[in-house]
Each structure stands twice: as structure tokens, then as C-alpha cells.
């Protein structure tokens, strides 16, 4: 429609496609559908076809274009909910709805992606609008980064020209677009921080479910950026608020409250995974909170992009506690530490992965076999971490066999499979543990493939930290075993890395 009038989204909408008016002032004129309003289409096989929000904005396809694994959808007219928003806000909401939301779940199908339900809530909550815009803008900026050319190489430090990592490296968007998106992300983040401080100062009159949701999006923002340091304050804040959550009353159900399980589950999983490389004696035990954390985690297992079995997550947290305790106890306590590590190891190894996978899916599905392989990779990675949680591990340890098992199981997970998003942590653990040059290169290549599907900064950080573990081990030589391995060496550096 080229009369210059903007459709407000009310009443019936008529669109002429190559139509010719037969009467009135417009008689004889042809009406075509403008190219920028043509909806993009995706294959029926794609799981990204969920509810599509109607945004009308001047979208530069070079900014929002994603690789061929997913195609964003945008349509017109303007939804009345969003017509008063400026064009950048609509553009970033569009990116969040059509691209970033898919990263946050395993199955992005109608009514199963709780993050989409946040979008209509933005109109009433500016803090939510700003933090969602910050996430989307940072995601666009991250998608523009090169792959691992400047971060990784082969095990000697320089990647050969024929490596698959170099082949996959490519710039997705123009540098100007990336710089603009970064500035927009920082600006929106600052606005969200200001509103968050105000909300926390008046917590008694604030919807805690909303604030926890916002804090989770702050954590995701830091993970999209790099996964270094800044995430920890947000995780600790979220844990304190989660501990104060109360059961729902019949009249307290809100759109944000309805996704509490997923928000809580992701925050708790981040808390545990962040604890694996953090040196601290004051970890909050998430499994001792007054709310039923275990049940919440299990309800979220099926569609959380992290796909970490709750039982293994609990065991991993106990191993994190053991790791921090081990460095403070005298050598006389070594037998007790080994016994505790052995107990955790037995618990991890006795976890029935196949039964878990069948139950989490509600019955056998096409995803069950790959769900099993992913969980087995997590199981073996947890076992490696338990071994490395103490300074002197059992004599019968065969960590290289566990690394081989991880590589075997992850070989079944194609990078295009949504479950590949759950493989960065076991890949990192296997890579950090091995001394085998072939396995080290496998870990580099695997994370590079993941980056091309999930361009979140923490994936690149995983590579940096993994290579740091190699350098520390290779430089310390025979002393490596005596100090408890790469876990203790990385913790001693005092950094805060979150590798999800």
C-alpha cells in the first residue's frame, strides 16, 4: 500500500497483491507488496517456527541475517502493543523474538518457549524492554565477531591454514553495524541497571519474579559478551532473590510468574557451572533453599538449552565444594578427601542416563538417542571434575578413557542439532583434561563449530581458558599432579569464568 498511510493494526486489514483498483480515485492503479514487507519463510522441519510477533521496522538484512540454520521472521503491520516504540527498540525486539529466543531453548515450538512470553510484557515494564534490547544488540554484535582466528590456534598456538576452524571463520555483518549494535547494547544495559537499582531499593513494592527475570537476562547478556567476571554479581543477586520466592497464590499468576521455573532453573545451573572454576569458601548451597529447587530443575530439564541432568548437577556442586575445601586442609586429611571424592564418583557413575532421557522427554522421541549421548558426555565430564577436585586423586584414575568417552558421545551430536548448545561444558572439560594433541585439536574444532551455531562470547572464553589450562600444565611439568591439576591451577588465578 503506497498511499503513505501507516496501518495501526486495528480492524480488518486488506492487502492487494498485484491487484488493480476498478473504481474510485485509485482506478487503474496496481498495488504490489513492498519487498521489505515480504515475510521470510523457513522449512517446515525447522523448530524455530513459533509465535511470530508483528513488527514493522526498517530492518537492514545485513544486521539481522543469521546463518542458514535459522531464518528470522518479520511481518507487518505494527502490533498495537509496539507501535509507540522507536524503530531501534522494535528492531531489537524483533531480533530477540526471531533469533535469540531460539538460542535459549532446545525445542523452539509454539507454546514451549517461555522467553517469547516476555515480549508483550515489555510495554508495561521498561526495565524488561531495555535488558531485552541489550541482549539482542549484544547478540548482533557478537555474531559479527570473527571465529577463533584471533583466539585459538593449533596446540602450538598457530592454527594451520587448512584447519576447519579457519574454514568456518567468517564475518557475518559489517563492522559499522557491529559497532552500532555494541553501543546500543551498552546504552540499553545502562538504562536497565539504573531501573534495576531503583527496583531493588523498593523491593517490597516490586514484583520479585520480574526482577529475577531481569537478572537472568543480565547474566545472559554477560555470557553473550564473554562470560568473564561480571556475571557473578548477577548470579549471587539472583540466588538471594530466589531464596525469598514464595509459592504462588491463585490471584498472583502473571505472565512473568508463569516462567518462574525456567528462570529459576537457568539461574541455578549458571550458579553451579560458575562455581566449578571459582575459588570461594562462601558458596550458597542452592539445594538447601526453602523452595523445592530439585523439582523446579527437573521440570525444566526437557527444554533448557543447558540440558544438564539435575542429579549430575547436584553431584557437580558437591564436587565444587570439595574442590574449595581440599586446598585448605592439611595432608593428614587426604584419605578422607579421597573417600568423599570416591563417593561422589560412585554416585555420578550410577546415574541411569537412559532412564533419565526417556523420562525427561515424556517417552521415546526422535531426540531421545541424542539426549542420551549428551547426558553421557556430561556424566563423564562430571567424573573428570570430581577427580580434579582434590589434590591427590585415586591411583586407579583413567581420565584419558573418560575423555575418549566424551569425544565418542559428542560425535553423535551434529552442530546443527539443538542439543549441541548443551555440549560446551563437557567439550571444555575434555579438552582441558587431555594431553593428547589430537584430542586437544578436536576440542578446538568442536568449540569452533559450536561458535558458528551459538555465537555467545562464553564459547570463545572456553577456548581461551582451555588453552590457559594447557599452558599452565605444560609449564609446570611434573609438579602438575602434585597441585591437583588444571581445576586448582585455574582457580588459583582468581578469575571468574562461566562456561555453560
Automatic annotation (TrEMBL):
Predominant cellular place of this UniProt entry's protein: nucleus
Cited InterPro entries: Fun_TF
Keyword Nucleus carried by entry: yes
GO biological process, one term: positive regulation of transcription by RNA polymerase II
UniProtKB keywords: Nucleus
Example of a GO cellular component annotation carried by this entry: nucleus
GO MF assignments: DNA-binding transcription factor activity; transcription cis-regulatory region binding
Pfam families linked to this entry: Fungal_trans_2 (PF11951)
Subcellular locations according to the entry: Nucleus
PANTHER family: ACRIFLAVINE SENSITIVITY CONTROL PROTEIN ACR-2 (PTHR37534:SF51), TRANSCRIPTIONAL ACTIVATOR PROTEIN UGA3 (PTHR37534)
The name this protein goes by in its record: Fungal-specific transcription factor domain-containing protein
